[in-house]
Amino acid sequence: MTFEELGLSDEILAAVAALGYEKPTPIQAQAIPLVLEGRDVVGAAQTGTGKTAAFTLPLLQRIGHGSGKPLALVITPTRELAAQIDGVATAVSRHTGQRVAAVVGGVKYGPQVKRVSDGIDMLVATPGRLIDLVDRGDVDLSQVRVLVLDEADRMLDMGFWPSVRRILGFLPTKRQNLLFSATISPEITQIVARMLHEPAFVEIARKGTTAEGIEQAIMPVEQSQKPDLLAALIEARGADRVLVFTKTKARADLVRTILDRKGLSVAVMHADRTQQQRDKALARFAEGKVDVLVATDIIARGIDISEIDHVVNYDVPENPEDYVHRIGRTGRAGASGYALTFVGPDEITQLREIEYLLGKVLPVHDLEGFPYREGRIIPFEGRPAKRPKRAAFGAKVRSGRIARR
Ligand code: AMP
Predict the structure, then answer these.
(1) What are the structural domains, with CATH classification, of the chain?
(2) What's the CA gap between 23 and 85, in Å, rounded?
């Protein structure tokens, strides 16, 4: 599949070349023709899949030039995402002559207002600032023909939904709607049903595509040494925004206790905690009041916290797709991050399944100076990722070698 085959105009194709994209990513190949047709689209895709260009390119082609009031509106939860979308749109606008602006919170109003009042075709905004500008009469959304809700799940999680609903009230009812979300929860499904018109669904099969900028490695260790290794790792790396996943609630509580004892500030989230406790844990972590958040997989799917720099899989996830979800919590919006997975001798088969899904073998990383027990099993590096046979213990042992130290 090439960009030429998707129905994009010559101007947009020139912009694509300037952006350095050679061929469309799967979500681009699927979504671009649908958006060009004028369909409502739901895209289930995470950051790192190319979703920004998947909506920005065709929507700019569709709207053309207006009289100065925005014809397209993209609502996105964070300033970083707004900047990323603005970046792609601005690159395209150099070739199409369209006018693009981003309005986000935390910066002065003046330059944003001037930009908007000079006349724009596409507006990228975070919800709070957009409402302010509409209320002040600086932005008129009555001409919007295409609406994009980017990272809808994150906007829900961050409590932006009431604001988004207010914004929808400023828009013409007849319009094209595009909704992107990493996860399609029941809440999102309801929103889609209420807001979108006969939407096409585009789902990026969870192939093991993980966001760029994440450094992944495995850390082979015996089960009994996992607690000490975690504490030593956090200390060695500086305990700043570490998200630790365990396979059970009991292990999450255990890890909390261990880290507490080492004097680290820790919060824990799992299904036995009340919603209020979970919200509190998350808020404290998001605000930087605790350094480490320990969680089971329930939170990996929905909630997103920016600026996590380390994800540690204390246990290898049983379901390989959970690995992708878990490490998707780091390295968002172009940031870099580390995803380290502790692999016990009994977890090598699970590891191979993940590597098969990812299509690559994960490198081994040892923590320097850590007193690893003699005879631990280190999975072979560099062997082709092949679908492993779920089975015999013997197979697991054979897929590793005994480290002689
Ligand atoms: P996104 O999922 O929109 O956050 O995009 C992730 C990254 O992929 C960004 O750094 C884009 O510049 C890059 N990207 C998007 N589309 C393509 C493409 N077709 N070819 C190569 N890189 C791309």
Answers:
(1) 3-203 (3.40.50.300), 214-404 (3.40.50.300)
(2) 19
